[in-house]
Specification:
By secondary structure, this protein is mostly helical. It is built from two helices and two strands; from the N terminus they run αββα. A two-stranded antiparallel ribbon has the order 1-2.
Amino acid sequence: MIVFVVVAVAAMTAIGSVGVVWLTGVGWLVEHHVLVPAAVHPVFALPACAGAGLDAARLAIGAGIVVALIAVAVSAVHRRVAGRRDLS
């Protein structure tokens, strides 16, 4: 029973600190010009970021990265399936 209480308290502490870590991370990203502040009126505002988000250029770069990651994943799956067909 005491183990359950200790685990529950540890879980609540971890969940409660996620918000602090999120806001600290967003502040760091704004300071290092990865995200734009709310004053610039971003095209895509991230949730729970006090209005900070991505402008058009950063959004295009992010979309390009996502497309590249999908292409690499599809290529890896295709190679694996083709390799299994050759073994059969």
